[in-house]
Amino acid sequence: MKNTFRCKCPITSALDILGDKWSLVVIKQMLFEGKSMFKDFTDSPEAIATNILSARLKTLEDFGIIDKQKLPTNRKTNIYTLTAKGLSLVPVLVEFTLWSKNHVQDFNPDMNLDEKLEWVEKNKEAAFKQIAENYKEYKQSLLKVKKDE
């Protein structure tokens, strides 16, 4: 992995890792949609090309945002899960969602907005914690189920 950053700015450096069209979509799919295998991502409505998906998964893995493990029952299949570093992006994704709800919805009235967003907006810290805990439980059950198959 070559760490080439454009400059010393923390925002620009983060964008060098996460600022492309797909990285946050992949993380969102893992966190909120339970996607964990390559086919899960390619079957999504966002329609990411396989070569781009492969590159994004590799970059996210290289920077420690996701882990890749082999499925014990099928050594050709990888399971991708968020690391603690990846989960630390929960507040960013929630704030991005709320910003979109408040500023983009007028341009995209068909946007999917969860009915829990009002609660999330009023209880951000509790929401951040709950989302992370839910994912940790999901990840644990995913890895256990996959190992038991």
TrEMBL record:
It holds the Pfam family HxlR. PROSITE patterns: HTH_HXLR. InterPro entries: HTH_HxlR, WH-like_DNA-bd_sf, WH_DNA-bd_sf. Residues 9-108 form the HTH hxlR-type domain. Keywords: DNA-binding, Transcription, Transcription regulation. This is Transcriptional regulator. It comes from Marinifilum caeruleilacunae.
